[in-house]
Every structure is written in C-alpha cells, then in structure tokens.
Amino acid sequence: MFDKVLLTVNKITKIYKAPDNSPVRAVDDVCFFVKEGEVLTLVGGSGSGKTTIALCILGLIRPDSGEIYYRSKDIFAIPKKQLGREISFIFQNPYEYLNPYSTVVNVLSETLNVVGISLDPEEKRKRINETMKMVGLRPMESYADRYVYQLSGGQKQKLAVASALVLKPKLVIADNPVSMLDISIRNEVLNIIKAINRDQGISFLFITNDLRIASHISDRIAVIVNGRMVETGTPEQIIKNPSHPFTKSLTSSILGIDPNSRILY
After folding, report:
1. What domain count does the chain have?
2. CA dist., res. 262 & res. 265, Å (int)
3. How many CB atoms lie within 10 A of CB 42?
4. Taking a C-beta distance cutoff of 8 angstroms, is the pair 259, 216 a contact?
5. Which ranges form a coiled coil (predicted)?
C-alpha cells in the first residue's frame, strides 16, 4: 500500500543537561521511517522523548548523533523555508501560539507568507477557503474575519490543523493535537485528520500518550519509553501481542477494542 519512504530517522540521540549538569538521554538511538500516505504514531508517556524527536525532524534542534532524511536528503541541508513547506506541525496547545487578536484568514495568510509561498489574491483566497472547508470552518464567510479569541477551543484546534494544511505539505507532525479537547470535539478533529490522510494522501507523524487514539488513527505504532523505541507494529499487532511491559500496561486498559472501529470512546 505504501511504496515510497518519505522520512527516515536513523539512530538519532539527543542528550540534555540536568540541573546538576548530569547528562539526560532524551532520545536514545531511535530509528524509524514514515512512508508516503502513511500515519505513524509515536506512543509514549510524558518525558519519553516524543516531542524532542519531532523538534529534531523539524530542524529546530540538532540530534547529537544520527541522521534524519527527508526524501533521501539530510534535513539540515534543506533550506528552512523549503523544509517548512514540505513538513508542517500541529501544536498541542493552540492558545500558546495563535495570536488572539489575529483573524482566521490572517492566521492562514501569514502561515503561507512565513514559508515564502507567494500566491495572487484570488489563488490565496481559494486555497484558504478550501483549507477551511477541509477542517470544518465553513462557510468561509462565517469564520474568515473572526478573531482567534472569538473561537471556541475546538475551533481554535481546527484552525491549528488548517494552519498546517494550508501549506499543502507532504508530511504533518501532530503533537498531541487533541489532548486538550473534550471527547466529542476530539473525535471530530481525529476524524478530520484521518479523512485528510485518506483523501489527500498526506503522511502524518502523530504523537500521543493514548494508545486508544493511536490504534484508531494509525497504520503503524511505535512505542517510546525513556527515549528508546521499544516496539513497533500495526495497531492489531501492538494491542494483541504487546512485548514490552509499558505497552502491556497500556493495552490492559483497552482490551477488547476493535482497531478498525471509528468509535473512539
């Protein structure tokens, strides 16, 4: 089903310094790949290294060792704006990065500007309109001129998703994008992401601490514990035959789940 490798993470390690100056291996010799059109989910607890891995892929921090390749090219050799057009990011907390006094249309327009996507006014309006429709912020006329502070929490998160998608990226990294939402809105946003993956062929690297969510949205799951990747597999393989104690503890809470079901809770 998935033929071409889009992203390769090869033996990356990232070491931070603790307050007492002792080394902390946030990421330890991690390897994985993401294929075109695939949803790979990194599952792990708080502090397991998931977000550090994402920041390395985005080129925002350098691993101390190892390589990251996007379409067989070292990501640190790719110009930042070009990489930003190819790989986009959905933040966990839209309240922290969306300007509350910016309008919806300005948020999306500025996202295009930051990575150097130049469109004539009609093309830009068309792309923004199409993106807003994809995430359920429609009709455009009802939302375009609203300020961010006027949006509900769910609408803010949809705008965060739209900000990633308006670039027409090949890969989206989604860092716990539904953890702050109530269940009904959470399901809606997850279904939007899954539909975009299915209909647009966009690859996703999804990050969560919730195996239940991972099992429904993923083609493959990689489990991260203390900066190390301890097992990978399809949702069915991970749930039915977990090998690591941490994974077993996660699966024990969702025994009997059907990985093909669309009902999340």
Report:
1. 1
2. 9
3. 27
4. yes
5. none
Strand 5-17 with 65-70, pairing: antiparallel
Q: CA-to-CA distance for 231 and 164, rounded, in angstroms?
A: 29
Residue 217: give the domain boundaries: 5-99+169-254
Task: Look at residue 47 and give its three-state secondary structure.
Answer: coil
> pLDDT digit string (tens) for 147-176?
999 999 999 999 999 999 999 999 999 999
- Yes or no: say if 75 and 61 are a contact pair by the CB < 8 Å rule: no
Looking at residue 144, the DSSP 8-state letter turns out to be T
SS3 37: coil
User: Which residue type sits at 261?
Assistant: S
Does residue 34 lie within any of the structural domains? yes
Distance CA 132, CA 97 (A): 19
pLDDT digits (tens, 9 = 90+) for 42-66: 999 999 999 999 999 999 999 999 9
* CATH code: domain of residue 233: 3.40.50.300
Structure token digits, residue 158: 């949809």
